[in-house]
Amino acid sequence: HYGLVTGETISRHFKFLSQESVRSILPFSKMQLIVFAVGLILPALQSGGFLSGTTIHDDCVDILDVCGEKKCYLEGSGGFSDYDPIRCELQCSGPARPRVPEGVCRGDVINCTSSTRQSLLNWQQGLETSINKILGKWCPSFQQK
After folding, report:
1. Helix segments in 6-80, DSSP class H
2. Residues 3-39: pLDDT tens digits?
């Protein structure tokens, strides 16, 4: 039978513990436990990430990083190191400075508006298609998924 666990029930099951020692081990009141639980759950509720039904997506900066890395390597200019939003250019570790698509350039990568996210996702898909074509042509054993 599962009842309320008190100092008395604990000391009854663990005979070497007195009720007083159990009370000193478990000094929490019900109110303290409620405050503790609310303190754990409230931040998740406030952020909207708890039981909200929202899907967590990569933010625009993450997608830009992936696209920048692929584009810089496709340009033969090493990896991606930075993005210049004024010039709408990627800065690669080599000399190339490829431009980003117009939708990405016009968009707001930091605040990640839905149109900017969609432009980035379209660009990412195009880069993946280009990479698959190259691999299919140069690597006969490459199989697209």
Report:
1. 7-13, 19-25, 30-47, 60-74
2. 555 555 554 555 555 555 545 555 556 555 565 555 5
pLDDT tens-digit readout, 25-84: 555 565 555 655 555 565 555 555 544 444 445 799 999 999 999 999 999 999 999 999
Burial class (CB in 10 A: 0-12, 13-18, 19+), 67: buried
Cα–Cα distance, 85 to 94 (Å, whole number): 19
Give the CA dihedral 54, 60, 62, 64, nearest 10 degrees: 150
- Cα–Cα distance between 93 and 77 in angstroms, integer? 6
Do residues 98 and 86 lie in contact, with contact meaning Cβ atoms separated by under 8 Å? Answer: no
Question: Measured between alpha carbons, how far is 52 from 3 in angstroms, rounded to an integer?
Answer: 34
Q: What is the CA radius of gyration of the chain?
A: 28
